[in-house]
Amino acid sequence: MQFLLDAEQREFARTLDRLLAAGDTPAVVRAWSTGDHGPGRLLWGRLAEAGVFALAVPEKYEGLGLLPVELAAAFVELGRHAVPGPLVETVAAAALLDRLGVAAAAEEWLPHIAAGEARLSLCLPAAGPYALDADAADAVFVVDSEGEGDRLLLTRESGPVQPSVDPARRLSRPVGGSVVARGPEVTEAAAHAAGLAAFATAAQALGVGQALVERTTAYVKQRAQFGVPIGSFQTVKHQLADALLRLEFARPLLFGAALTLEPADVAAAKVACGEAVYAVARTALQLHGAIGYTAEYDLSLWLTKARALRSAWGTPSACRARVLADLG
Amino acid sequence: MQFLLDAEQREFARTLDRLLAAGDTPAVVRAWSTGDHGPGRLLWGRLAEAGVFALAVPEKYEGLGLLPVELAAAFVELGRHAVPGPLVETVAAAALLDRLGVAAAAEEWLPHIAAGEARLSLCLPAAGPYALDADAADAVFVVDSEGEGDRLLLTRESGPVQPSVDPARRLSRPVGGSVVARGPEVTEAAAHAAGLAAFATAAQALGVGQALVERTTAYVKQRAQFGVPIGSFQTVKHQLADALLRLEFARPLLFGAALTLEPADVAAAKVACGEAVYAVARTALQLHGAIGYTAEYDLSLWLTKARALRSAWGTPSACRARVLADLG
Amino acid sequence: MDLAFTAEEDAFRLDARAWLAAHLPAAPLPSLETAEGFAAHRAWERELAADRWSVVSWPEPYGGRGASVVQWLVFEEEYFAAGAPGRVNQNGINLLAPTLFEHGTEEQRARILPAMASGEVIWAQAWSEPGSGSDLASLRSTATRVDGGWLLNGQKTWSSRAAFADRAFGLFRSDPGADRPHRGLTYLMFPLDAAGVTVRPIGRLDGKPAFAELFLDDVFVPDQDVIGEPGQGWAVAMSTAGNERGLTLRSPGRFTAAADRLVTLWREQADPADTALRDRVADAVIGARAYRLFTYAHASKLAQGADIGAESSLNKVYWSELDIALHETALDLLGPLGELSDAASDAPAHGGWAEGWTFSLAGPIYAGTNEIQRDIIAERLLGLPKGRR
Amino acid sequence: MDLAFTAEEDAFRLDARAWLAAHLPAAPLPSLETAEGFAAHRAWERELAADRWSVVSWPEPYGGRGASVVQWLVFEEEYFAAGAPGRVNQNGINLLAPTLFEHGTEEQRARILPAMASGEVIWAQAWSEPGSGSDLASLRSTATRVDGGWLLNGQKTWSSRAAFADRAFGLFRSDPGADRPHRGLTYLMFPLDAAGVTVRPIGRLDGKPAFAELFLDDVFVPDQDVIGEPGQGWAVAMSTAGNERGLTLRSPGRFTAAADRLVTLWREQADPADTALRDRVADAVIGARAYRLFTYAHASKLAQGADIGAESSLNKVYWSELDIALHETALDLLGPLGELSDAASDAPAHGGWAEGWTFSLAGPIYAGTNEIQRDIIAERLLGLPKGRR
């Protein structure tokens, strides 16, 4: 029983934090939102060097093995710094290819994912018709149903961008593609990948929530009204206390899920992190007031993401159903 | 368009308020809770003299006609003073007997209801198996289904008391009875009575909520901690502001329903008043602290009723379904 | 007690409905927070005004119909039920005009109101400053007396509509030596294209320039554009603020129409057995109905000559929270489509849910934050002691 | 990072489970807030103690098993999962004992703890006074120095268990001239049947005498029943208060067991298509799981020698709100049965939902109101400035 990150894991998270803090991530996000993927690709490379994508790739494909605890710690930092791109989708695609066991596809993609040379998007039936940032991805994997069962397609046609409420999330319906595999193995691998995507999204959401609380706390300490910092008003305090509370009780569910990757545990983490991040975003906006409502103020980079992450890769309702269904 | 109580209606409510304030209603409630119905019967008589029960009885049966606006105003005051007894059930039974059109039963009971000489309890299929205060009632009307349709029974056997979370609400399953009527007329009259019961319960709930806000407001003005009245703490203020808000937006739904008695309007009022009173009770308890948690402090008379009224004669869930079902 | 409309009110409703049916744009106008949309909405104001539907509650000489409060509510119900465009001049109509009726001169009303009614002049509000949001009395922009008028200096922010509007109104500190912060303020109007005015549009969360910063550098305003007495601006503005928070800014028709659209969406999208969504849709319907009836009770009080006062804070908190809950429910009903911006080609036609949601999020902030409103409810309606907050 | 139990911990769990299975009362005991139930629960304490299960985390000399925090959590999981009786001596075990371990003398520990472990002496807490609830430092009851001890005078209230308990502990003002209200307090223990003590039971919402008022009139307490230094009572008590709010008062096993019972109830009572109820049941399951894992993280920190401190305020708010939501959901699942008290013959057997709900309502009030806890979270964990509240 040692239900805490160890020193090495904490240092890994700190390394990512430093790397991202040094990289002017807000500027990267704003570029990404306009379709300029250059700075995002550079950042992606640095994250790969730090080992982020190798955490989802087994050693035989030049990764570090699937390391869910480290993956969660990494995605918390990615969310905390609002890093754009198909991050969740790339690690979920890695999980899919690894589980599927089609050697050619695995050999073609997994080492490149680990090295940060491949950005993949992913479209699975349970999560709706849209692929994230397909226009910035090297390829999109799509699972659909046709005739006797599921099939896995690979396409490079991303389809026209459908703007999201989060300008940094560029959605589209991928077009066409060539068949990589068919049958129950695809169904099983897709379920595994959807679980990992929900898990990584939960971590990302928790990180977004953490950034929102950190920034709002700092803001209310310095913003004065009626001659005192607004952080001294009791309702401001209590709103932030509730925000912290939500995050701190979502966090153990996330790391508990990391230890099992059981669908019900992942679903519980996704509900808690997803509901928390949206509630925290509401609080962050309210306590910032008008300035929080502007696109030019960096807070918006996290605010707009919160709503999207609440539903991405598993709505709260679907996840609650899963929690009870799996109680046995 | 004159969506306000008129001077006469306001004066009627004030008369009831004075009557009940003068009558040491808390002592009446406490006696009632122990099964001592004497003081409650005396109070019932005074309410009848003031015209409360005649509001649910048509003129041809010595009542004032069904006057829903006045009835709502009256039940708000009854709730506000935590008056015990089968008040809702008696007026709903009056509505049932009037609508049913079985002359003998109407003639036997309605003039006595109007005069305050008959207390009735009522058990309808939609509202569960329990009759309220059947042990204090002169008779219980029960609608059940048997063979080809509904039937109306009259019984004087109240069955053993099943204590409620509100000590002043004495529940039981009535036993046996003689058949008064059968067939679709019973079904229709029962639906009408259930609607009136939901409506009167909504009004009673609103009154309970109003008393809770009034008492809590007075308490936080005088209770001091840390050298100041706790009513000067911002979170105390905001909790009470929210409580008032809930009541003030439930109130127009109640009186709107009084103007139509349409099932969807009644259901909307019942949801709003029922959810409001329970939320307000939570706030009242929290702001009183430990003293609010005691049976001997009068606040408890309203607190324990709040939960019961939220579900009585129409759960929030059933009422929400009804609101949408009737949108056409 | 009744909710009955008079024959006159019914006729008014049918007139409005018929006019709207005949004149409604075939397709939704572009967002009024864009240059193109602003122009389209200005044209729509002109069309409304041509048949006296832009300011129904004003007296006829200024372009209105002298409508009663109930008639105004009826008009709004019809307007929103028809899905008619947003009102680009609502700052002027809802905030400035009531102040002019109460504190303006006859000359000001004659000069300003008809041009407002016709959409010829679109107004922006200029209340906030970078340091003064909830604490409006701490304003620092100045009005300095000069021959024949005033020179304005300083900075205003969160000036809604200012990116594209013609004129603005706000408070300026004209007596820096006044003994209390809300004294020595003067209420002034100024053109946004005047010499010395710099308008910097600010994008809201979805990037649209829904408001702007205003930089004022020796902007000359003639005496005729002061409302009320110099130095009395706070008292003058408070009547407007009450109005902004109260009846007029958010008419019930807006929410009853939105709840109706939500029910339609629910029927199209949801599994009726999904009671969790059903309950939220029902709550939106109930909430909109409650707000409508609450407002009719207010209208009845107003008709009796009563003052609404601090009760308008109840309105503000209620509609702003209702609006958010309603739009969140819509986004959840939309499933994967709920993440799309309304600009997405896949977004549901005539939906506007994403923009509506974004707009709703500002509700608890502007026109007095809901925190301030709850303080007012507690202190003025419940009589709780003032604290330091 | 792991959640793995050692072989020793697993064996401990199986031991506890087997003992509970063999000894659990066949029927639920009467409510411990009644005279009859109090006696039955005292007998149960004796039975637990006979096999060293009453205070597993204490050192063996005092009747414990020297269990680690993790073992204690494991025991609690088994205890609540088995549906075992409430612990009538929890005031003593959870509040007083940690204080004695930290601040008591060896003589006090030897004299007091074994009798506590066996249920021979049941303890009541006596923190609050009529004027001192959240503002505990404003206590007015006094302890006056006399030869060989102290004389207590004043009034205590909300003294849980005091209606039937043997002894009580609390703070008394021993130096009325101290310069700050939380100085000059002394921590004392006293018998409830001592001369000068009057116990007036107080019924909680359901009428059961869950607490009492204590009137103290020259009650003599010998020096041996002072804990810590005279005048240092505040500091001594704070360690207990942190404990009360933190790990020990509400163990996760209580909520995971309650959530399991809720799921059973849901399966029995609810339409599975009713997603509104389903979502609330799922939230209870998720919430209990979150609280359990949060506590395991705390236990891991404690094992590393870290201090929990103000983080215990997070626990307090979380479990108290979880507990209410969970019981409200149960009452809604029960439909018409949800209004019945547990004393009703129709009430579901082994339910206890009504009493559990009543009990849950006190959660946000006692052990430091949730308002105070949120102030602590904001000020100590987030570093927000102190305000006047």
UniProtKB/TrEMBL annotation, chains A, B:
Residues 195-316 form the Acyl-CoA dehydrogenase/oxidase C-terminal domain. It comes from Streptacidiphilus pinicola. This is Acyl-CoA dehydrogenase. Its cofactor is FAD. Keywords: FAD, Flavoprotein, Oxidoreductase. Residues 7-117 form the Acyl-CoA dehydrogenase/oxidase N-terminal domain. Gene3D superfamilies: Acyl-CoA dehydrogenase/oxidase, N-terminal domain, Butyryl-CoA Dehydrogenase, subunit A, domain 3. Pfam families: Acyl-CoA_dh_1, Acyl-CoA_dh_N. Belongs to the acyl-CoA dehydrogenase family. GO terms for molecular function: acyl-CoA dehydrogenase activity; flavin adenine dinucleotide binding. InterPro entries: AcylCo_DH-like_C, AcylCo_DH/oxidase_C, AcylCoA_DH/ox_N, AcylCoA_DH/ox_N_sf, AcylCoA_DH/oxidase_NM_dom_sf.
Automatic annotation (TrEMBL), chains C, D:
This is Acyl-CoA dehydrogenase. It comes from the Bacteria. It comes from Streptacidiphilus pinicola. Residues 231-382 form the Acyl-CoA dehydrogenase/oxidase C-terminal domain. Keywords: FAD, Flavoprotein, Oxidoreductase. Gene3D superfamilies: Acyl-CoA dehydrogenase/oxidase, N-terminal domain, Butyryl-CoA Dehydrogenase, subunit A, domain 2, Butyryl-CoA Dehydrogenase, subunit A, domain 3. Pfam families: Acyl-CoA_dh_1, Acyl-CoA_dh_M, Acyl-CoA_dh_N. The keyword rRNA-binding does not apply.
